[in-house]
Design brief:
By secondary structure, this protein is mainly alpha-helical. It has a domain of 95 residues. The protein is built from eight helices and two strands. The chain has a two-stranded antiparallel sheet. The protein is rod-shaped, with a radius of gyration of 46 Å.
Length: 219
């Protein structure tokens, strides 16, 4: 009986020791896991300072970017305003009506030198050209339509006399800058036509334009 009782106590003691060992092992494993997890979430101070330095260096760049954006918006607004002013000036240019109570001056003779004249009497143009002509209407030039007239206005050519004193090379540059859709136009005869209109030489103008198609000489 005493032997059996002692044997039972030995087994109990062994079980207690085994439980303590298992508990210690499990606690050690849990502690190691917590340490590993904490290390993963540990903040690298040096890396953090480096990132803060980069952010600080980006602040002047962001300010410069905002300033450039503001300058760009101002330039766009000014460009729109200039375009609007030019459009209003082109569409609101008053037409000069001929006075019927003033005797028309005699038409200059052919071959007479062309100078910067006063406004010609456009009321005589219809009898020669068969159509009414508005003073300084660039569309009266053979080869110039509404779009090209706007191009001319854009570079400061607003009257027949302006066009008559413009170099053909400048007109070619204007057309080239406007795009390929204007490449077929030939401005070589435009200044001569404009000079005749500015001088009121309607017959000479008709004789010249009768030999042109689209601003080009017809064989």
């Amino acid at each position: 009986m005493p032997y059996t009782l002692m044997k039972g106590w030995v087994w109990v003691l062994a079980g207690v020791l085994l439980g303590i060992v298992v508990g210690w092992l499990m606690r050690s494993i849990a502690a190691k896991r917590q340490v590993a997890r904490a290390r993963k979430h540990h903040v690298d101070t040096a890396e953090l300072e480096r990132l803060r330095g980069r952010v600080a260096n980006l602040e002047p760049v962001a300010s410069e970017r905002d300033r450039l954006k503001a300058d760009l918006n101002d330039c766009r607004a000014q460009k729109s305003a200039v375009a609007e002013v030019r459009h209003l000036a082109a569409t609101s240019e008053p037409e000069v009506e001929a006075r019927s109570d003033v005797a028309p001056p005699p038409e200059p003779a052919a071959g007479e030198p062309i100078t910067a004249p006063a406004a010609p009497d456009v009321s005589r143009a219809k009898a020669v050209l068969g159509r009414s002509v508005t003073l300084d209407d660039l569309k009266a030039i053979e080869g110039i339509g509404p779009k090209i007239e706007l191009l001319c206005h854009g570079i400061g050519i607003r009257t027949w006399f302006d066009l008559s004193t413009t170099e053909v090379s400048l007109l070619r540059t204007m057309l080239a800058d406007a795009g390929s859709q204007f490449s077929a136009h030939d401005p070589s005869a435009w200044p001569e036509q404009a000079a005749l209109l500015a001088a009121g030489r309607w017959r000479d103008f008709r004789a010249l334009t009768d030999g042109l198609r689209g601003g080009r000489a017809v064989d």
